Amino acid sequence: MKPVLALVGRPNVGKSTLFNRLTKSRDAIVADFAGLTRDRHYGNGKQGRQEFIVIDTGGFEPDANSGIYKEMAKQTRQAVAEADIVIFVVDARGGLSAQDHDIAKYLRKIGKPCLLVANKSEGMLEGIQLTEFYELGLGEVIAISAAHGQGTRGLVELALESLNLPEDPEETEEDPTVIKLAVAGRPNVGKSTLINTWLGEERLVAFDMPGTTRDAISVPFERQGQKFELIDTAGLRRKGKVFEAIEKFSVVKTLQAIESANVVLLLLDAEQGVTDQDAHIAGYALESGRAMAVAINKWDAIDEYQRQLVQRSIETRLPFLSFANMHFISAKKRQGLGPVWASIVQAHKSAMCKMSTPILTRLLLEAVQFQSPQRGGMFRPKLRYAHQGGMNPPVIVVHGNSLEHVTDTYKRFLEGRFRKAFNLSGTPLRIEMKTSTNPYADKESS
Hints:
Elements (H helix, E strand, L loop, with lengths): L3 E5 L6 H8 L8 E2 L8 E7 L2 E7 L10 H16 L2 E7 L6 H13 L3 E6 L6 H4 L11 E3 L8 H11 L16 E6 L6 H10 L4 E2 L10 E7 L2 E7 L3 E4 L2 E4 L5 H10 L2 E7 L6 H12 L3 E7 L6 H14 L7 E4 L8 H15 L5 H14 L11 E9 L4 E7 L6 H15 L7 E6 L5 H5 L1
Parallel strand pairs: 1-4, 1-5, 5-6, 6-7, 8-11, 8-14, 14-15, 15-16, 18-19
Antiparallel strand pairs: 2-3, 3-4, 9-10, 10-11, 12-13, 17-18
């Protein structure tokens, strides 16, 4: 599981600047769960081989008891609860404030691992100007400048070191016949109902396995001879001999479940249509290269006109999921669930598909003969041969000359040909272009 770093502090201390620096993007938000004016933002970061999740929060006022500041404080507390370590950001130039003392008091009380970071420290003498921040009682003050990138690498190293992460975690041998399935979606779309319906079927054999408070809980079960491992994002717990699903929505839990899965079932609410949250979850799953199926729940609760609106919103808001099979279901009434299982199995099969080099090369040359790529400048791209570069998701590597001029439109054309030939549905397909270098280029220039 990726470690989680939460950025906390009063307004305008540079949390968002630090967030963008750690995620190496100006807009690295992978899940912006709306509903409030200022909410938690989630992004992916990577340093060396270690990946991590960063949570950006709004200005924190722990004692706020009304209005938007109360809601923002609630969001920040949730981020702190989800995090492995808290990075408390203060303003080195603005100095210590009463609000900083309130935040420090809250962080000391909850006892979560915490690093105190003085931002905007460029050009300052740490030993003198940062002394006042030791009053907060949170240990060493780390001087950084998020805007200039000074000290941010050392900050991440220190944060990850303090978590005592294993350098080379032992890889447990996994059964390739077991399909790891994550059910992802917003709160109240029916994830719990769907999971309980699955576990209640006579053909399913299920039992629970212990999980930690942060990790997703795995539920192994079997359906018609196929073994699955449900990576739960709905907060599944066991009460006596009956499974009880409690809807506890944790963004981090959802992101980590997607990372751990082979296949993601994105569950949408027919009554509410496709929202920004749905698009963000789908985008994160696509970015992670996960095989997918989409189920629109509560289909029985809307009329024909609403159904047309929902289908139109799926086409406009989720066009990047055209490879995934769509299903219209009712988890409560157990309608339409059989085809969902078929799509999940097919998506996994497609994601793990093995493609031979001779067949890929033949398909490539046939595609070029049918339609040549557009000329780029003086040269026309020349596609020579192709081979498989990976699975889950499948990667096809195309070799040739001047391939940097191959357009995205032509790549989509090739993707369609490859998908049809290998019957790939439910999985992203990535095509990489490798241009051969001219061994005589240096000699000619000299």
